[in-house]
Amino acid sequence: MIPALNFKSIELYLFVVFVCLIYLLLTIISSRAFIKPEYLPYVKRRSRVPGILILALAAVALVGWLTGVTLFRAKSYSKLISVQDGDFAEDVAEIDFSSVPVLDSSSANKIAERTLGDLSDKVSQFVVSPYSTQINYKNTPVRVTALAYGDIFKWIKNTKEGLPAYII
Questions:
Q1: Domain locations in the chain?
Q2: Which parts pass through the membrane (predicted)?
Q3: What is the C-alpha separation between 69 and 161, in angstroms, rounded?
Q4: Is 117 in contact with 134 (CB distance < 8 Å)?
Q5: Which of 8, 48, 59, 146 is the most buried (most CB within 10 A)?
Q6: For residue 121, is pLDDT > 70?
Q7: What is the reported pLDDT for 6?
């Protein structure tokens, strides 16, 4: 895949170097310089522009990297966040242990699959999404999992109605 034309992206430089190296390899193979050494000046002449391009890109990448190094930009990085003095006990409220979640994501998905199995009208059409989100529901932390369509045919049949429920 061709990378985006972004001079800050290393993928662009790697792609151009890769294309130049392929060109050099094909030039060597097509000229048969490895069989007849007298064709070597031809290969050198044809390799001059790609070689200069590779060196120029390496220099540009090196200069770009050096200008962004934290060592040289420490002053500008130090001003990104303004420091404010505070008291931790006042700034961070103490929480009740009953509001701390006790169920991890994989256990929540297993329980959600059992709950979906209890819903006889939904179990054949939907599956439990592997992703769950933790929310506060009625001041209690719970994990919420969405339903997903079982396959493409079930999606075609049910897409007009949308997803009917979430599993808490």
A1: 10-75, 99-167
A2: 12-31, 51-72
A3: 53
A4: no
A5: 146
A6: no
A7: 83
pLDDT of 120: 66
Give the amino acid at 90: E
Structure tokens at 89: 């006990």
The tokens of 167 are what? 């599993």
14, 133, 10, 115: which is closest to 65 by C-alpha? Answer: 10
pLDDT of residue 159: 73
pLDDT tens by residue, 1-43: 788 888 778 888 889 889 988 988 888 888 777 777 777 788 7
Q: pTM surpassing 0.70?
A: no
